């Protein structure tokens, strides 16, 4: 399908429910108090905060019009400073989700050595960072797009780029992504908005520049009208708005964070979108901020204050009020008739700070939020941080690792498709000798065993003659290349051979205490 002709609502009206919820989730993820106050109806347009501030007149505060009470929907009284405090647990959850998935880079291999070597170059050239960014966006907003990008003039290989779901209009066919239009705002001056649309469909990438308003796409203008799209115009094919990709695959992939999305099951335009980790926890997040704000208010009110009798004040002159000098030692009494309410002494006033009540309430809310998001409280440092083995860590964080495994179910096929498309573009555009096909992707362990535990396991396996030296070295050093493993095995065999020839080198009766005892002839297992 071609690009929109213009003079239509943008983003399309079918995505209005999606846009409203993405506005809320983005506000919690960004953690900007201005955005939270605006989206819940407790403030005005934050002036550029959030991804919808330039669209449809800014944040619409749709949630603030609901019947239920929201802490962030309460406006700050006139003449007072805002004292609301935000706890960035939503962004912490998104960061933790990304770390659980990609704290270690995935292993990407192909069926032949040439393709595997090329994939290693691509992985080592920033793919790990892109995946961390993409996983964080997916956890925060319900999903993320991975698009293949290339520029032969500036870079010798294609790469993957993470694109947020907030600026994408997907098209689905039988539950599969058939096309997607990415958009960005290049200029926003008053009611005039200049947008760049980039549509990915099998075989082509279409580009268009539109000048419209905050809620209307407007009319199409030449790509050369803006410096950011002028270079794209030179790469367009004969059709005038499309760049042929040279492959039949779609050059963008959608990765859902988690399915199903409970909100949009009946909306054909959104039923295949994922849901973020914080979906359904918004009231709890709002309550947590209220508890911490109340706690900080207690601290403010708990500051010690004193009430000074009028006789202790020193006049600053007519119309200038009076002040009290706390360092003054001697006061002269005044021969005045006493007035009702005048005290003779200085009174100290200090309110109690309800630490226990606030801490217990905040702790319970936090555990509820984490449990609803699918994580163990221990993953976020709650309930003790004592040093334990990796096995104990997995046991204590079982819920978090279960959520991680569920997310891998969605990430693995999407990443396989994205890397296969990357190889296809590499071959078609850069004329490399890679073999295009689905790669093998293995996700790394998010928790690594400590060296002591690994050494003890290796010793037990070796004594039981249940593993070769090659296997034991790979277990202790999973990040080593084959050449490094072979060199280490050779050094162990050489050392073992010397111990067999002269057992006195170890101070023991034989070489069995050397860590890797000889298997008879010194040959490699």
Topology (elements, then pairings):
Blueprint: H1 16-30, H2 33-39, H3 89-102, E1 107-109, H4 113-141, E2 143-149, E3 159-164, E4 168-173, E5 176-189, E6 192-201, E7 204-212, E8 219-221, H5 227-235, E9 242-244, E10 252-256, H6 282-301, E11 305-307, E12 314-315, E13 322-323, E14 347-349, H7 355-373, H8 390-396, H9 398-430, E15 440-442, H10 451-463, H11 469-476, H12 482-501
Antiparallel strand pairs: 1-15, 2-3, 2-10, 4-5, 5-6, 6-7, 7-8, 7-9, 11-14, 12-13
How would you portray this structure in words?
With 525 residues, the chain is of the alpha+beta class. α3 packs antiparallel against α4, α6 packs antiparallel against α7 and α10 packs antiparallel against α11. The protein contains twelve helices and 15 strands. The strands form five sheets. Strands 4, 5, 6, 7, 8 and 9 form a six-stranded antiparallel beta sheet that branches. Strands 3-2-10 form a three-stranded antiparallel beta sheet, covered by helices on one side. It is globular, with a radius of gyration of 32 Å. The C terminus is likely disordered. It is 37% helix and 15% strand. The chain starts with 15 loop residues before the first helix and ends in a 24-residue tail after the last helix. The longest helix has 33 residues.
């Amino acid at each position: 399908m071609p690009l929109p002709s213009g003079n239509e609502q943008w983003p399309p009206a079918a995505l209005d429910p999606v846009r409203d919820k993405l506005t809320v989730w983005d506000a919690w993820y960004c953690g900007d108090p201005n955005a939270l106050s605006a989206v819940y109806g407790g403030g005005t347009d934050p002036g550029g905060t959030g991804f919808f501030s330039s669209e449809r007149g800014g944040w619409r505060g749709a949630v603030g019009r609901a019947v239920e009470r929201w802490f962030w929907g309460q406006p700050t009284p006139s003449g007072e400073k805002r004292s609301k405090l935000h706890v960035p647990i939503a962004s912490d959850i998104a960061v933790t989700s990304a770390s659980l998935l990609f704290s270690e880079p995935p292993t990407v291999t192909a069926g032949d050595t040439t393709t595997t070597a090329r994939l290693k170059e691509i992985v080592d050239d920033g793919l790990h960072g892109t995946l961390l960014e993409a996983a964080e966006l997916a956890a925060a907003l319900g999903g993320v797009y991975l698009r293949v990008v290339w520029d032969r003039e500036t870079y010798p290989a294609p790469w993957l780029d993470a694109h947020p779901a907030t600026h994408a209009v997907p098209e689905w066919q039988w539950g599969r992504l058939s096309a997607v239009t990415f958009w960005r705002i290049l200029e926003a001056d008053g009611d005039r908005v200049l947008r760049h649309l980039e549509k990915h469909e099998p075989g082509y990438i279409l580009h268009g520049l539109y000048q419209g308003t905050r809620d209307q796409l407007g009319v199409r203008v030449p790509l050369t009208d803006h410096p950011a799209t002028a270079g794209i115009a030179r790469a367009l094919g004969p059709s005038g708005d499309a760049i042929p990709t040279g492959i039949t695959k779609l050059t963008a992939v959608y990765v859902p964070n988690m399915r199903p999305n409970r909100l949009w099951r009946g909306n054909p335009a959104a039923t295949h979108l994922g849901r973020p980790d914080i979906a359904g926890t918004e009231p709890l997040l709002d309550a947590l901020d209220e508890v911490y704000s109340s706690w900080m208010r207690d601290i403010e009110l708990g500051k010690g204050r004193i009430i000074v009798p009028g006789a202790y004040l020193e006049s600053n002159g007519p119309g200038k009020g009076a002040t009290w000098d706390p360092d003054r030692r001697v006061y002269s009494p005044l021969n005045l008739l006493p007035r009702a309410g005048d005290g003779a002494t200085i009174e100290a006033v200090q309110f109690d700070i309800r630490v226990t009540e606030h801490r217990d309430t905040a702790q319970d809310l936090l555990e509820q939020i984490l449990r609803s998001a699918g994580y163990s409280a221990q993953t976020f440092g709650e309930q003790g941080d004592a040093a334990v083995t990796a096995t104990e860590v997995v046991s204590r964080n079982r819920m978090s690792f279960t959520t991680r495994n569920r997310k891998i179910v969605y990430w693995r096929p999407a990443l396989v498709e994205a890397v296969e498309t990357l190889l296809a573009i590499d071959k078609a555009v850069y004329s490399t000798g890679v073999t295009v096909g689905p790669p093998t992707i293995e996700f790394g362990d998010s928790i690594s065993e400590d060296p002591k535990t690994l050494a003890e396991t290796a010793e037990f396996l070796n004594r039981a003659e249940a593993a070769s030296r090659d296997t034991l070295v790979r277990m202790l050093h999973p990040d080593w290349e084959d050449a490094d493993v072979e060199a280490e095995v050779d050094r162990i065999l050489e050392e073992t051979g010397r111990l067999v020839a002269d057992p006195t080198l170890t101070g023991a009766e034989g070489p069995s205490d050397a860590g890797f005892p000889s298997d008879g002839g010194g040959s490699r297992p």
